[in-house]
């Protein structure tokens, strides 16, 4: 969806108004000051709720440029950032503002720092795109190794290199290297061209240096195509379709039967601390879930990114949140739970510090009573594995437990909201939460469900609802006759 | 241009040694690259008659004392990068507060802060060098003149990024992934100090004093400094340390005279 910078420049050339700083200032105060501050110093009302922090625009240091390190961005660079936003940060896209307003904002931004005159843009030659057909991933991988990318980004690009956890930005704030597998969260775009630009211009103010003098443009493109090959899609449908199996549910995270359930992904969001601030980079950003059940119990296979395997104190941990039986009240968002007077939740807490194979379920008013053992909880079967920047944990729970007072009672035909909370022991000031995901326990309708990976091979006891749905949806005459 | 500086180097080196005999050890910067560059800087300036010449006969010398108990030096843990650890047999400590055996303080940048107004000095043709060696910066503290070439070298077989956070000149953050890689930079305006860091190896830090004239020095193992070749005049001399900040003193020197300045930094 991103528009190529050159294309942007072409399409808007005719719409660019002559700069009027009064107009730009007014638009800035209306749209930008809340985060970037009235004077552009990055100290707006909401600044501390955001991480990374909004830029101090008066310093003239900008991350996403087409220009040499230490020089200011071009007007087009700023226009593109305004238009596309910065995915994975608090900076939204402003494409809903008309182009004229965006150009006035650009003109105003360039008036905020002397750097725009002292260090004018010096363009960087990005070379020529060889095209995907000439991309050689082996060569790209060799460049990745030669340039030392793994020191921060890790051997597999998971953002878990040996220097990753120690990085700070130019203002001393902790920062983390991009998990290169998360193409959807590349701030400056995830196309090969964007990656080449980041390589050659650097990301000023962050540890990411310019490789302009260290790599040929040909190698930079090969590296970019290699990095692109590491990117994985994310299926943020907010719906997890369960598959039904007969017999015991798989306990091993690597059991092939998990693949019978379609994967559902959730992006996680950092929760502000008690001061209403976020003071560390978000390290756990995504969680994938596969759900199986056998009519008696539900198995969840959960996989999330975490750059460090922390089993000491504090340890990596995860909680599966369900709405307890007879919930009095509503938990709108896990971001605001627990607050005083919010209802209890059914939590199934797994911690890397605990004895292997243990997760504990209880209905609790908060997380800490379950963490510190004030509430013992009921042990649930679980297995965990950590590999190259990812946890994979399997937790099995009865659909309708009788051993936990007030526990969620799930119907095998129901759609139930499930939420996830993740703690990174290597980044303990923060927890990350998902939105409520709909787990669809009832069997799928088998046809016409284009978004599902594959029809289940183990429909088993689908029952009447499944049969009726088939009649409605399936045009196959034989099946209709058979059902009647 | 190629041969002339060499001849002048000899002349100037002799001059510096001569001054040194009278007023303590000159040019005592600990870093080899820096000490090599400095006499050349002095030698270059007279080439341009349009600029004031650092060929005066006055000098300011002194020492930087340290009192109190210095903080324990922080041990550097290089485990994360085997290429770093491999190059050291002994424990490495951060060179932040280094107190010499004679009770003086090392790594203090001393320079003429005031007294040279209205004079301009051409940048020397020779480069200063910032070397990355054993995942440490050499030198740790040094000076360059405005417009002087700064040669940044990676002597390690590992990735370094050179993130120099200048605020008066263009900042830069460059990758040097391979051994032997060399990059040239310069600073356009005076700045005390430009801090350079390597984010890959967070213990690495270098401080560069960017000054508009050639009258600067860094204390070494003896804790002394010498600012030679000054015109007669009254000068404010500043001593800067990364932890203890900056102190200044004023001294007046006449032609042929050597003024003496004593600084003292106290443990906090």
Summarize the structure.
With 484 residues, chain A is an alpha+beta fold. Chain A has helices at 5-12, 21-31, 33-36, 75-84, 99-109, 115-118, 137-146, 150-153, 192-201, 217-230, 368-371, 463-473, 477-483; strands at residues 239-241, 243-244, 264-267, 269-270, 286-293, 297-305, 317-322, 345-351, 358-364, 378-387, 390-398, 415-423, 431-433, 437-440. In chain A, β12 (415-423) and β13 (431-433) form a beta hairpin.
CATH architectural designation of chain B: Sandwich
Count of discrete domains of chain B: 1
What is the top-level CATH class of chain B? Mainly Beta
Count of helical stretches of chain B = 3
Walkthrough of the structure:
The complex is a heterodimer of chains A (484) and B (268). Chain A is α+β, with helices and mostly antiparallel strands. Helix content of chain A is 22%, strand content 17%. In chain A, strands 1, 2, 3, 4, 5, 6, 7, 8, 9, 10, 11, 12, 13 and 14 form a 14-stranded mixed sheet that branches. In chain A, a hairpin with a 2-residue loop joins strand 10 and strand 11. In chain B, the strands form four sheets. Chain B has a five-stranded mixed sheet, with no helix packed on it. A four-stranded antiparallel sheet of chain B has the order 12-2-14-15, with no helix packed on it. Chain B is mainly β and 268 residues long. Chain B starts with a helix and ends with a strand. The N terminus of chain B is likely disordered. Chain B has one domain: Cupredoxins -  blue copper proteins (Immunoglobulin-like, Sandwich). In chain B, helix 1 crosses helix 2. Chains A and B meet through loops of A and strand 7 and strand 8 of B.
């Amino acid at each position: 969806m991103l528009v190529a910078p050159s294309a942007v420049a072409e399409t808007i050339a005719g719409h660019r108004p002559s700069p009027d700083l009064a107009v730009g200032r007014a638009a800035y105060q209306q749209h930008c000051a809340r985060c970037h501050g009235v004077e552009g110093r990055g100290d707006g009302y909401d600044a501390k709720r955001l991480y990374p922090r909004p830029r101090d625009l008066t310093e003239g240091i900008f991350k996403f440029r087409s220009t040499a390190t230490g020089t200011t961005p071009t007007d087009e660079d700023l226009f593109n950032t305004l238009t596309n936003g910065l995915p994975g940060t608090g900076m939204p896209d402003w494409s809903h503002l008309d182009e004229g307003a965006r150009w006035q904002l650009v003109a105003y931004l360039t008036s905020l720092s002397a750097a725009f005159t002292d260090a004018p843009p010096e363009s960087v030659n990005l070379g020529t795109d060889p095209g995907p057909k000439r991309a050689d991933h082996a060569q790209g991988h060799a460049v990745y190794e030669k340039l030392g990318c793994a020191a921060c980004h890790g051997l597999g690009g998971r953002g878990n290199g040996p220097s990753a956890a120690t990085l700070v930005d130019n203002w001393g704030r902790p920062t983390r290297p991009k998990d290169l597998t998360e193409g959807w969260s590349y701030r400056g775009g995830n196309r090969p061209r964007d990656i080449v630009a980041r390589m050659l211009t650097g990301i000023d103010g962050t540890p990411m240096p310019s490789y302009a003098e260290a790599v040929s443009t040909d190698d930079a493109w090969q590296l970019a195509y290699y990095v692109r090959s590491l990117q994985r899609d994310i299926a943020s449908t907010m719906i997890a379709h369960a598959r039904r199996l007969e017999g015991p549910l798989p306990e091993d995270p690597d059991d092939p039967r998990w693949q019978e359930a379609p994967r559902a992904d959730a992006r996680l969001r950092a929760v502000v601390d008690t001061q209403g601030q976020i003071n560390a980079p978000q390290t756990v950003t995504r969680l994938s879930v596969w759900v199986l059940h056998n009519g008696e119990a539900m198995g969840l296979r959960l996989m999330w990114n975490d750059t460090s395997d922390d089993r000491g104190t504090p340890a990596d941990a995860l909680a599966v949140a369900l709405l307890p039986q007879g919930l009095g009240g509503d938990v709108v968002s896990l971001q605001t739970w627990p607050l005083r007077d919010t209802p209890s939740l059914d939590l199934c807490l797994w911690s890397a510090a605990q004895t292997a194979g243990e997760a504990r379920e209880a209905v609790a008013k908060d997380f800490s009573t379950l963490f510190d053992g004030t509430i013992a909880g009921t042990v649930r079967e679980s297995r965990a594995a950590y590999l190259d920047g990812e946890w994979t944990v399997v937790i099995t729970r009865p659909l309708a437990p009788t051993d936990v007072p007030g526990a969620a009672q799930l119907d095998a035909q129901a759609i139930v909201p499930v939420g996830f909370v993740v703690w990174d022991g290597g980044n303990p000031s923060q927890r990350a939460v998902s939105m409520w995901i709909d787990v669809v326990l009832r069997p799928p309708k088998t046809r016409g469900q284009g978004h599902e990976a594959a029809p289940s091979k183990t429909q088993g006891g689908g029952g009447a609802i499944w049969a009726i749905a088939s009649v409605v949806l399936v045009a196959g005459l034989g099946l209709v006759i058979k059902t009647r | 241009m190629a041969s002339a500086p060499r001849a002048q180097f000899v002349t100037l080196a002799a001059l510096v040694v001569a001054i040194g005999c009278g007023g303590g050890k000159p040019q005592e910067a600990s870093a080899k690259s820096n000490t090599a560059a400095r006499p050349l800087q002095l030698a270059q300036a007279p080439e341009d008659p349009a600029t004031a010449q650092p060929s005066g006969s006055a000098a300011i010398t002194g020492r930087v004392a340290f009192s109190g108990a210095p903080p324990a030096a922080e041990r550097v843990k290089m485990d994360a990068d085997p290429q770093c650890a491999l190059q050291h047999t002994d424990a490495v400590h951060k060179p932040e507060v280094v107190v010499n055996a004679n009770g003086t303080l090392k790594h203090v940048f001393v320079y003429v802060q005031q007294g040279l107004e209205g004079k301009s000095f051409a940048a020397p043709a020779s480069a200063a060098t910032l070397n990355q060696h054993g995942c440490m910066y050499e030198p740790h503290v040094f000076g360059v003149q405005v417009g002087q070439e700064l040669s940044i070298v990676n002597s390690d077989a590992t990735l370094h990024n050179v993130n120099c956070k200048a605020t008066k000149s263009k900042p830069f953050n460059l990758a040097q992934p391979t051994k032997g890689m060399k990059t040239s930079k310069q600073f356009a305006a005076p700045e005390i100090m430009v801090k350079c860091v390597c984010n890959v190896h967070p213990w690495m830090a270098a401080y560069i004093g960017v000054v508009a004239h050639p009258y600067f020095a860094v204390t070494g193992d003896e804790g002394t400094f010498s600012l030679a070749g000054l015109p007669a005049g009254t000068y404010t001399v500043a001593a800067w340390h990364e932890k203890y900040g900056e102190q200044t003193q004023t001294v007046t020197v006449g032609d042929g005279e050597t003024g003496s300045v004593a600084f003292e930094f106290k443990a906090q």
